[in-house]
Design goal:
Oligomer: heterodimer
Low-confidence stretches of chain B: none
Order of helices and strands of chain B: EEEHEEHEHEHHEHEE
Mean pLDDT of chain B: 89
CATH superfamily of chain B: P-loop containing nucleotide triphosphate hydrolases
Structural class of chain A: mainly alpha
Distance between the termini of chain B: 28 Å
CATH topology of chain B: Rossmann fold
Order of helices and strands of chain A: EHHHHHHHHHH
Number of domains of chain B: 1
Largest sheet of chain B: 5 strands, parallel
Strand content of chain A: under 5%
Radius of gyration of chain B: 17 Å
Number of helices of chain B: 6
Shape of chain B: globular
Number of domains of chain A: 1
Number of strands of chain A: 1
Strand content of chain B: 25-35%
Low-confidence stretches of chain A: none
Chain lengths: 227, 206
């Protein structure tokens, strides 16, 4: 028996959430398949004109990513809240803010990162050039952690509320708008042959702000939910 | 060491208690009694700092527990109404991750020894989903085996769903905590055999 420092505790929290995700693979796969299917429906519905597809691709991929991330959010704190794990986290000698950050990171690994990895493949259906595929992947890599961090605030605020899913969507989707605009903008710019570095920098800035404020606001909301 | 001064608790529209004061020295136990809905769990959550008291304060070693929570939490072992046991994790994983979140690191061997002591040997790898209610409580209570350097134990209904042998085991851990000079606060509906223990009682009214 030894006292654990901050880093091992954080690692344990991430490891626990990844283990749980692995035991409940269906939850993870639902998010991923939802994303794949929604994105794939558009080329089928719109038809084969590649110039139309190329123009709508950025928006379609990003909106699908937003909705898929909503799908996973509801579960972020709910089971911890129900089984008492969250109470224990609030009483940990380590700051709750960092435990929340660890949870959000694990959540992103299982619900955000798969979207980033599969997106280039989906982009092929829209006849996107290779450069645009790269920009899209990079934009999603910067944008999906923002979605998880912002979404965590909403998930914490709606904890224990009846009909939390619908309320969560109403609360969080408007906050996703800036990420959507610059994320889709980055891809559109590359499609029309302009550099996406401006949009990507803004997404990077969003990520930094979300990293600082997200866990802190979520932790505050969780403490209120526990009262 | 633990001191409550003029505590008042309001949940919703109901005032559960007011003007509640007591203090607990090292080596003492506090048994919180009262009918259902009298605010026993709320009192324990107030003592942990999870709830904010309507009036009054809770002091640990003279410092308000909500003032410097991280130092207070390093002294605290809390087992709540919900056992914080994950259905999809095995008993060993539950014990390991549960303790890790409290800042206590254990090796798989130490975890298995504690689980064995709590009657879960050969159940180390069973998911909690497949355990009975009492076994789940035991898996949660196995954390007590690693609570030696936590001077304050706050236990919500630790004897629920336990058989006589397990109740005896928990009692022996409480006795060890007392001889170490630690404090124990607990609630229980069951009549427990506390002969030979210095037990204070707080009775909450309906």
């Amino acid at each position: 028996m030894t006292a654990m420092g901050l880093a091992p505790v954080i690692t344990a929290v991430v490891w626990r959430d990844l283990t749980l995700a692995l035991r409940r693979r269906s939850d993870v796969l639902t998010t991923l398949f939802f994303f794949v299917i929604v994105v794939s429906l558009f080329p089928l519905g719109v038809g084969g004109q590649s110039n139309v597809l190329r123009n709508i691709a950025p928006g379609v991929v990003w909106v699908a990513a937003l909705l898929a991330s909503m799908l996973a959010l509801v579960r972020l704190f709910a089971s911890d809240f129900d089984d008492g794990t969250l109470e224990q986290a609030a009483l940990s000698p380590q700051p709750l803010v960092l435990l929340v950050a660890a949870k959000v990171f694990a959540h992103w690994l299982v619900s955000g990162l798969p979207l980033v990895l599969v997106a280039p493949l989906l982009g092929l259906q829209f006849d996107l050039p290779v450069g645009a595929l790269g920009a899209m992947t990079l934009a999603l890599l910067l944008g999906t952690p923002c979605l998880s961090l912002i979404g965590a605030i909403g998930a914490a605020l709606t904890l224990g509320v009846r009909g939390a899913g619908g309320l969560l969507a109403l609360l969080v989707l408007p906050l996703y708008i800036p990420v959507l605009i610059f994320g889709a903008g980055a891809v559109s710019a590359t499609v029309s042959g302009i550099s996406a570095s401006g949009q990507l920098s803004v997404l990077g800035a969003f990520l930094l702000i979300a990293l600082v404020l997200g866990p802190w606001a979520s932790a505050a909301a969780l403490r209120i939910a526990l009262e | 060491m633990l001191e409550a001064v003029g505590l008042e608790c309001v949940r919703g529209q109901r005032r559960l208690f007011q003007g509640l004061s007591f203090d607990l020295a090292g080596g003492q136990m506090l048994w919180v009694l009262g009918p259902n809905g009298s605010g026993k769990t709320s009192l324990l959550r107030l003592l942990c700092g999870l709830l904010r008291p309507e009036a009054g304060s809770v002091l640990w070693k003279g410092v308000d527990v909500r003032r410097s929570p991280e130092t207070f939490h390093a002294d605290l072992l809390y087992l709540g109404h919900a056992p914080a046991v994950k259905e999809d994790l095995s008993s060993r994983e539950n014990l390991y991750f549960g303790l890790a979140q409290m800042g206590i690191g254990v090796t798989p061997r130490e975890a298995d020894l504690a689980l064995g002591e709590f009657g879960l040997s050969s159940r180390e790898l069973t998911p909690a989903r497949a355990l009975s209610q009492g076994q789940r409580r035991r898996a949660a209570l196995a954390r007590l085996a690693f609570g030696a350097d936590r001077p304050l134990w706050i236990l919500d209904e630790p004897f629920t769903a336990l058989d006589a042998q397990a109740v005896h085991l928990v009692m022996s851990h409480l006795a060890q905590q007392r001889t170490r000079g630690g404090c124990v606060v607990f609630t229980s509906h069951q009549e427990v055999d506390l002969a030979g223990h210095a037990v204070k009682r707080v009775q909450l009214a309906q």
